[in-house]
Design goal:
mainly alpha; Growth Hormone, Chain: A; 74% helix; globular
Length: 395
């Protein structure tokens, strides 16, 4: 739509579109932590309702008043709407479950949320092309607004048993113990400096934040999955078999794998995270991603889908473990700090892809992208309880 000369004058150039993406990322950096701090000070359900409405306003600008300025304003509104929901949803879910004495089911509920979100993305992707063919960009834009409205209405229906200002009861303290010292002395939601200090002092919480950020590495590369699917398809199939439909079919397979990861997490009720188990699954996912990509055949997409499912499952499990260690009055702020870290990882991933794409094909780049997960799994094994004793006994 941005490049279509019938929409925005002469159409936007690649450089102009890239600037819009840069603006989008910058706004995400600017809004993420302030909106997280806001979610620790006011009812989170209000922010969950407001987020899609703000995003929808940006889509309306794109659809009915298209111009470069409108596109830029739309990205600002989209990033603000996303930031209002980032951290707020996780905080509402965990604190409400805790208030009901059921916090151990957070991973299960978060997994279902992830699976349903992936289903929504899959459905929206499938509907976009026929909608645009039937009614042009206006039809796709109107459908996007309807989706935002449905999201806001669904958010209105969410229960919030423990809004900020009313601490939910704890069933049991986190492994680090309850917040102590400066953390527990703060009335209401703490400031950013207090939250950063808490992350610095509490080793297991800091490790959870770093691990959750690191696990988003391949998720940041999902924008390049069509390039991998295209290389797999074109390398083994003749052009007559339909490259566009073939690539779409392979993308659906990966989406199903992502949904499977959410479903697997949705069947999990846990009080903690087993580092060794997580390390084994991350290793399996990394090997599957590398082998599936290097096969260079459409059948390899099955292994890639398995890898994305494993990584999605692992993100839910690490998030659940982290939430168990975060004080309620800082939950959304800490989750927003994770969001900032994820943006930094995404930018690093995009830069690495841009640098490597001049020498290597997508299959090789995705295989290399599996290496960080091997590193993470090794670190998890070495830092797991009992690992130090085992190494000492071996010596």
């Amino acid at each position: 739509m941005f490049a279509d000369p019938d929409v925005a004058g002469a159409g936007l150039s690649a450089a102009q579109i890239s600037l819009l993406f840069v603006l989008w990322s910058l706004c995400s950096f600017v809004f993420e932590i302030p909106t997280g701090m806001l979610a620790d000070r006011c009812p989170r359900r209000r922010l969950l309702v407001a987020g899609p409405l703000v995003t929808g306003a940006g889509f309306a600008l794109w659809t009915w008043w298209p111009s470069y300025g409108a596109f830029a304003a739309g990205f600002v509104l989209w990033s603000l709407g996303s930031s209002l929901r980032s951290g707020s949803l996780q905080a509402l879910l965990f604190d409400t479950l805790t208030a009901r004495g059921d916090s151990l089911r957070y991973a299960a509920l978060a997994g279902r949320v992830r699976a349903m979100g992936a289903c929504g993305v899959l459905l929206g992707t499938a509907l976009a092309a026929p909608l645009a063919a039937w009614g042009g960009y206006e039809a796709a834009g109107a459908a996007s607004l309807v989706s935002c409205g449905i999201c806001a209405l669904a958010s209105v229906a969410l229960p919030e048993d423990a809004p900020p200002g009313r601490s939910p009861p704890r069933e049991s303290p986190p492994r680090d113990g309850p917040a102590r010292g400066a953390d527990s002395a703060v009335e209401g939601a703490p400031g950013l400096a207090v939250v950063v200090g808490m992350l610095w002092r509490r080793h297991s919480l800091r490790r959870g934040v770093v691990l959750l950020v690191a696990l988003t590495w391949v998720a940041a590369l999902d924008e390049y999955l069509p390039l991998l699917a295209e290389e797999m398809w074109s390398g083994e199939m003749s052009p007559e078999t339909g490259a566009a439909s073939g690539v779409a079919a392979l993308m659906v397979v990966v989406a199903i794998g992502d949904i499977g990861g959410g479903v697997a997490a949705g069947r999990t009720v846990t009080a903690g995270l087993n580092p060794r188990r997580l390390a084994r699954w991350l290793t399996a996912g990394a090997v599957a991603l590398a082998v599936g990509a290097l096969i260079g055949h459409p059948v390899g997409i099955l292994l890639v889908a398995f890898a994305f499912g494993v990584f999605g499952w692992s993100m839910v499990m690490v998030d659940a473990a982290m939430q168990q260690r975060v004080p309620s009055n800082a939950r959304a702020t800490v989750t927003s700090v994770v969001g900032v870290g994820e943006e930094m990882v995404a930018i690093a991933a995009y830069g690495a892809w841009a640098l490597g794409s001049g020498w290597l094909p997508p299959t090789a780049l995705f295989a290399i992208a599996a290496v960080p997960y091997v590193v993470v799994s090794v670190v998890l094994r070495l830092s797991a309880p009992g690992a130090t004793t085992a190494r000492a006994s071996a010596r």
